[in-house]
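Annotated sample (chain length 479).
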Amino acid sequence: MPKMDHLLVVGLILFGSLFLYSEGAFAMHPDLVIPETVEMKHQACQDILRLAEKYKVEGIFAKDITEGKTSCTRMDLAAALALLTEKMAETALKQGTAAVDRADLVLIADLKEELRAEMLLVNTRAFQQRNEELGTRLTALTKNISLSGGLVGVLQGSIGNKPKDYADVVGRGDLVFNFKIADNTIAVIDVEATGGDGIDRKIASFSGLNGVAGSTGDRVRFRQAWVEHSAWNDRLILTAGKIDLTNYFDANAVANDENSQFLAKGFVNSAVLGAPEIGPGARVQLKLAEPLVVSLGYGSGDADSADILDHGFGIAQLDYKAKLADREGNCRVYASVDGSLPALDPATGLPQGAKLKEKNAVGFGLSLDQQLTDTLTVFARYGQRDRDAYTTHRAWSVGGQFLGLLPGRKADVLGFAYGQIQAAGSLADSQEKLAELYYKLQLTDRIAVAPVVQYLINPAGSSGADNVTALALRTQVSF
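Output written by the structure step:
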């Protein structure tokens, strides 16, 4: 039997057999009730640190947490427990089950029961990153169901857009339900309500100035609904259902969320990624080694099609987690094939979207992020796709975020980015350029306000168009 299968079996025996003896075990540790955030002196943190030292687990908590610079959240504790469990199973595999104390297993079971909501999503890393403020603040409704959510509002207006400037308000709310189906299987449903069109309907651009606005009109919908199963100690993860492929591909630590990071769509993902709208699809993630992950994804190119295999979008990605001077960094390289049909104008029959012709068009790109200091993280993106199949075929962007710029405001974030998008052929005579600056004021643990400034040069690649300044105020509440 392969080592991975041995490890899985031993882990299941250790923690499965524990429940024969642990009924009501949490009452043994009443001091392990855990609030939303704790300091390292909290009993739960100290117990985890003690077990980490005992079973020789390094890096159980982030450096900022162990040094007392930031508090430890319930999700941090859940992630630490997942790592600790894996290492204890490895110890049992190498040295026998007697090498793991039963009292330690009871303690871990108690902690996991207290953190049962957070444990539901502890292994869905891509989902946590994409829904930073929605997917990690979990409130347990029942033992197997938890809820998180958020509200985002954006007031945005333009300056210099001739013949007329525009202003609009966009509101968006999400309720994310997480269901534990089995020990290694979860289901997630994201119910979204959106109102307001945003100023993009009046200001033509390749970048998209408001990533929160979404489609036209007021609407309530099931934004996502998927099932995820993990195997081989989470080395293999399978996700299927109504999914957003950008949750898993072209991710970035500082430029991937319009709700809490950059507002423009061109900085949330590459402007030439070409991923389809949220719809039927699947992804497979395989961890080849601790820093190396391979992912494959497929989505229907036409979410309204009866046959999801028609005109689909496929993508493959290689993720490598690197460290520069002991600071975290990520490199993601992907290649895609887009077989979707061009969207046609009902009146003229001509293409009206990004794709110009029916073709299995290829593309590739990379996304980089690197922490340089305790407070500064930078990013870079590049993407390219078939010149003759799209209105735009090349895009790049760079920028970063700075934490705690002002004294006494260590949770505030300053973000800055600049990017260019090149149209294909003779569709435009210049490259569109966009700069964005935001400052997110973290008023409380759950409320943030961010003024945003954007400067758009050569909108839609037209050198004759007026440059536009857009000012926005974004508010965010998570619960």
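Annotation: The radius of gyration is 24 Å.
Annotation: The first strand starts at residue 37 and ends at 38.
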